[in-house]
Design goal:
The chain is of the alpha+beta class and 180 residues long. It has helices at residues 16-26, 39-45, 100-109, and strands at 9-12, 29-37, 51-58, 65-73, 93-96, 113-114, 119-121, 125-131, 137-143, 146-148, 155-159, 174-178. The longest helix has 11 residues, at 16-26. The N and C termini lie far apart (47 Å).
Length: 180
Amino acid sequence: MRIRRIDHVGIIVNDLVAAKEFFVDFGLVVHGEAGLEGALLERLLGLDEVKTSLVMMGSPDGEANIELIKFHRPAEEQVPESAAVNALGIRHIAFLVEDIEAVVAKLKEQGAEPFSEVQRYEDSYKLCYVRGPEGIILDLAEEITWAIGQGAASALCIPRHRLPPIFPSPSTPSLCFPTY
């Protein structure tokens, strides 16, 4: 017996259309949409008279998936909370992105609320937490690499602490690859 992978994370929403639009604009792709109801679903969830709509979405590379679910029956009438990031339970979904500043700006245009400006963690990552629709928190990270030189003498460098263990010398501050 072994766990093969985390398949997806389910997020219950009241406004499925708005949540889907938010994540599509963010850059996820829709893998499928369905409506589910009936005895099997009722037994599985331990609820009576269940009727749902869902959207399965994921990153373009297919590595990470989320399932947005709207319960039509039984309806949950609570308004989503804007709970603090340290509240108990699942609090955020983390995404590795490119050009974090552009991603945050785009999300702000959609009404998302950043917790702060983009922060830098050492020479490893740029980070920003953003609250999206229905209180969903996104943890955005961009890996930092840097280029040195110009033209034929240029290189892309990776900090030592981000190198795989096959590079034996801990004294190597970084590894640089020539770019042509």
